[in-house]
Amino acid sequence: MENRCENCIIRQFNSLRALNKDELKKVSDSKISKKIKKGDTLFIEGQKLDGVFCVRDGVSKLSKLSSNGKEQIVKLTNKGEIMGQRSVIAEDFTNLSATAINDMEVCFIPKEVISNTLNTNPYFSLEVLRHMAHDLKEADDVIVNMSQKTVKQRLAEAFIYLRKNYGEDEDGFLSLTLSRDDYANIVGAATESLIRMISEFKKKGFIKTEGKKIGVLKEDTLQELADGF
Amino acid sequence: MENRCENCIIRQFNSLRALNKDELKKVSDSKISKKIKKGDTLFIEGQKLDGVFCVRDGVSKLSKLSSNGKEQIVKLTNKGEIMGQRSVIAEDFTNLSATAINDMEVCFIPKEVISNTLNTNPYFSLEVLRHMAHDLKEADDVIVNMSQKTVKQRLAEAFIYLRKNYGEDEDGFLSLTLSRDDYANIVGAATESLIRMISEFKKKGFIKTEGKKIGVLKEDTLQELADGF
DNA sequence: TCTAAAACATGATAATTGTCAGTTTTTAAC
DNA sequence: GTTAAAAACTGACAATTATCATGTTTTAGA
């Protein structure tokens, strides 16, 4: 049992930091550490979740299947985030599927522990509330982008977002490597359209590619493009 | 002071129902009733809100300006809903503007009362959390619709939504009358495109119109259309 | 009631994006 | 290492949607 929540720095980045010692002990005693392989799924939309997942390492995509059978990625999660809280709080089925984009390390925390703490520790509720408020704001922004911007603008924005949030390696390629399909499902476009746009960006010198890897060359130009110039 | 929160049925539909007598008294003593005329604005995106609005009557649109200058309506609020909580909780500027679609009656509740209660009454926090969880789920659905469905599908869906949530009058017209511009800003399309589609739906007998008013004639057909047939 | 402004409407055309069909490259399993 | 499957890519074409131009109707205020 070397991995105790008490010693886990990750929790400083999420709502679990509002827990007191006793509560933290309960969480730690009941949590189950899991390793998720790239491509594996944490949960599928429509499932009932028995708990939440705290991401120690790796990135996952939260997506939803449209009635036309296409996947839409609603959000990418990063280290420190908690997944599945919406479903546990609303005592509802998940509306999203979670799939690992690279190898992940997560802790599963049973819902009883979470809901007990929500009922007794208002600071914890408030922390969860703040995080959800943040998610809601981001979701609103996505709605506006989806409806008012072109695919090209959304793609430019995606590259900037990925660089900002996940960084790049020593050769200037985005640290988070996504498939073309994933890109298409983030910006909400046909895969072929998206590939064409990547080619275009590359030809124009905005980005560089090497296999799946993509590197941002002209962030300013991409930003202008995203803003509509 | 005839209008006391203690006697207001509206609060049964929102998170205020989790308040105890004392808390409710505080809310009631500090609240300010306001009448908002159709077309007037409750708040504008980027403002700092000093409180939340509890909707007693009327409908408002929550919208956001895109960088291209077009408005996107993110959500319509109805009787009983509380507006501005996200901003108050996150101690953040509003990301949305709120505009009255018809004449409204709202109560303004100062943020201090709200945040005090959030800090002390976990049931209230939990209720707010549930409502926000619901909003977040709805936002996810909107994202998927925006990116995966055609304008025609989204319009069909909008008519069904409006009938279901706001009802219709004795002549079969939607109770909530929106301008063509508002419709365009809900489904995320150019106003001209939208008007054309309304004409098409009318020609095909799916809906009827009389001036601004629109009535759903074939809900099943619209539903099939929205689902992609 | 008159009048200007706003909202509604339609046509022509252009831009954006999707679909289908096929080729090449990469990946992963045996 | 070979090979089958998956992913990446390209072209041709079609469908969707936006834009611009213009006319008509409705609405609200003097």
From TrEMBL, chains A, B:
Point out the signal peptide segment: none
What domain of life is recorded for the organism? Bacteria
Report what the protein is called.
cAMP-binding domain of CRP or a regulatory subunit of cAMP-dependent protein kinases
Any matching Pfam family: cNMP_binding
**Which residue range or ranges hold the HTH crp-type domain?**
149-220
| Listed SUPFAM superfamilies | cAMP-binding domain-like, Winged helix' DNA-binding domain
Under Gene3D superfamilies, the record lists: Jelly Rolls (2.60.120.10), Winged helix-like DNA-binding domain superfamily/Winged helix DNA-binding domain (1.10.10.10)
List the top taxonomic levels of the source: Bacteria, Pseudomonadati, Bacteroidota, Flavobacteriia, Flavobacteriales
Q: Name one cellular component (GO) term.
A: cytosol
Q: Where is the Cyclic nucleotide-binding domain?
A: 15-118
In terms of SMART domains, this protein maps to:
cNMP, HTH_CRP
UniProt keywords, alphabetically: DNA-binding, Kinase, Transcription, Transcription regulation, Transferase
- UniProt entry tagged with the keyword DNA-binding: yes
Q: Which GO terms describe its molecular function?
A: DNA binding; DNA-binding transcription factor activity; kinase activity
InterPro entries cross-referenced by the UniProt entry: cNMP-bd_dom, cNMP-bd_dom_sf, Env_Response_Regulators, HTH_CRP, RmlC-like_jellyroll, WH-like_DNA-bd_sf, WH_DNA-bd_sf
